[in-house]
């Protein structure tokens, strides 16, 4: 008779199943309590730019582009209009002060000048004739006064004699009274003639003065017309480079029209375009540097143009010390424009990450370098090379500074 073998409860199979269940339960508990549930993305490390946070000097500056211009540009505007009779000098040539550039023709101006000159000649003749006439009249008055004085003296003598004879009862009263009336009449006539003479002299002086004033004004007018005619010959106001002349022979130009410009070659400046974002921080006297021929030359802002076009405004900068030799009009070059004094700061190199995060967060590598974790940060000032770090990063941290465009919203990057 066979002996029945009692089956063990903890069989090998049951033990294995129990161990497996315990392991599964432990893994599930670990996953619920301790596992990293952050979204993760695999990324290729060699395709990234990784920069280290450093402690250094923050220079607040921007890089702008300046175009070399002459220190002084003289516009050539037509003082008078006319058609171009002769073009003496073409653009691109050096001219000297007073050198003839253009010759214009204007028949109306010449006619007006001749009419004005004729009027002045007529007034000169009128003035001469008036002076001659008044001189003759003056001689006539003097002759009449001389005759009147003679008659008055005769009448006075007769009156005084008759008065004495009448008092001596030698002549009748009628003879005495007649002599008296004749004398008094001549005395009264002399007073009237003297008053008339003064009036005529004053009137003559006034006529002469009026004619002289009219003649003077007409002669000034003639001089103005003469100067206007001289302006038909366009001359260089200063010595320099005739950089442009925008007219041709036979073309008509109007008064005030710009016909070209002359560049004064005694010095140069740079015309600089600056983003309107910096409008409130730009002022006259702000310094910068310009590199030419392997050397740096200091610059200074001297003029700010307030008009903003396409989000930019312009300033003029001049060389603070020496002007580079060989510099030419129209050259363009980057300028380092200082916006403030250098200060110590925690620095993060500039990169494409900023356009994706706005500087609010970055991916920071862990100590192993195998993972990069998203971290919130606060950035301050910026120059073309560095951001100033205010919060969130420490010196020595390694940060992905290239673009985050392909990383989505993942919180962790698994670097390969």
Compact overview of the structure:
With 416 residues, the protein is of the alpha+beta class.
Descriptive notes:
The protein has four helices and 22 strands. The radius of gyration is 53 Å and the shape is rod-shaped. The strands form four sheets. It has a six-stranded mixed β-sheet with strand order 1-22-18-17-21-2, with no helix packed on it. A six-stranded antiparallel β-barrel has the order 4-11-14-13-12-15. It has three domains: about 40-60 and about 345-415, conserved putative lor/sdh protein from methanococcus maripaludis s2 fold; about 60-105 and about 235-340, Efflux pump adaptor protein, beta barrel domain (Elongation Factor Tu (Ef-tu), domain 3); about 110-230, Orthogonal Bundle (Helix Hairpins). The chain is an alpha+beta fold. The protein starts with 11 loop residues before the first helix and ends with a strand. A hairpin with a 3-residue loop joins strand 19 and strand 20. Keywords: Coiled coil, Membrane, Transmembrane, Transmembrane helix. Belongs to the membrane fusion protein (MFP) (TC 8.A.1) family. GO terms for molecular function: transmembrane transporter activity. Its main location: other. This is Efflux RND transporter periplasmic adaptor subunit.
Q: How would a crystallographer describe the biggest sheet?
A: 6 strands, mixed
Low-pLDDT runs: none
Count the beta strands.
22
Task: Count up the helices.
Answer: 4
CATH superfamily annotation of the largest domain: Efflux pump adaptor protein, beta barrel domain
CATH class of the largest domain: Mainly Beta
Q: Might you state the CATH topology name of the largest domain?
A: Elongation Factor Tu (Ef-tu), domain 3
- Rough shape? rod-shaped
Numbering strands along the chain, what is their spatial order in the largest sheet?
1-22-18-17-21-2
Q: What structural class is derived from the secondary structure elements?
A: alpha+beta
Strand content: 25-35%
């Amino acid at each position: 008779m066979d002996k029945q073998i009692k089956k063990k409860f903890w069989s090998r199979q049951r033990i294995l199943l129990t161990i497996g269940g315990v392991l599964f339960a432990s893994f599930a508990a670990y996953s619920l309590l301790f596992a990293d549930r952050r979204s993760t993305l695999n990324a290729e490390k060699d395709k990234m730019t990784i920069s280290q946070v450093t402690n250094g000097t923050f220079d607040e500056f921007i890089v702008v582009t300046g175009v070399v211009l002459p220190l002084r540009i003289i516009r050539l505007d037509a003082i008078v209009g006319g058609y171009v009779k002769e073009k003496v000098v073409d653009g691109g040539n050096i001219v000297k002060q007073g050198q003839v550039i253009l010759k214009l023709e204007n028949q109306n101006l010449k006619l007006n000048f001749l009419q004005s000159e004729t009027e002045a000649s007529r007034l000169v003749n009128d003035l001469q004739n008036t002076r001659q006439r008044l001189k003759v009249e003056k001689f006539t008055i003097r002759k009449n006064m001389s005759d009147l004085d003679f008659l008055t003296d005769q009448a006075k003598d007769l009156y005084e004699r008759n008065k004495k004879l009448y008092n001596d009862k030698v002549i009748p009263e009628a003879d005495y009274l007649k002599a008296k009336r004749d004398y008094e009449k001549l005395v009264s006539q002399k007073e009237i003639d003297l008053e008339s003479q003064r009036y005529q002299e004053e009137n003559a002086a006034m006529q002469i003065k009026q004619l002289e004033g009219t003649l003077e004004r007409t002669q000034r007018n003639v001089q103005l017309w003469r100067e206007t005619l001289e302006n038909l010959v366009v001359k260089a106001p200063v010595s320099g480079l005739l950089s442009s002349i925008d007219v041709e022979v036979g073309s008509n130009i109007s008064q005030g029209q710009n016909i070209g410009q002359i560049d004064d070659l005694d010095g140069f400046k740079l015309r600089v375009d600056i983003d309107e974002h910096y409008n409130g921080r730009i002022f006259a006297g702000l310094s910068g540097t310009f590199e030419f021929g392997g050397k740096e030359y200091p610059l200074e802002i001297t003029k700010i143009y307030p008009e903003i076009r396409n989000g930019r405004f312009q300033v003029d900068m001049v060389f603070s010390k020496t002007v580079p030799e060989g510099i030419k009009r129209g050259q363009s070059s980057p300028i380092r424009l200082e916006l403030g004094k250098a200060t110590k700061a925690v620095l993060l190199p500039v990169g494409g990450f900023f356009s994706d995060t706005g500087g609010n967060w970055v991916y920071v590598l862990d100590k192993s370098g195998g993972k990069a974790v998203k971290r919130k940060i606060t950035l301050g000032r910026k120059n073309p090379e560095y951001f100033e770090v205010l919060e969130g990063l420490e010196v020595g941290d390694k940060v992905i500074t290239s673009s985050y465009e392909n990383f989505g919203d993942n919180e962790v990057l698994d670097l390969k």
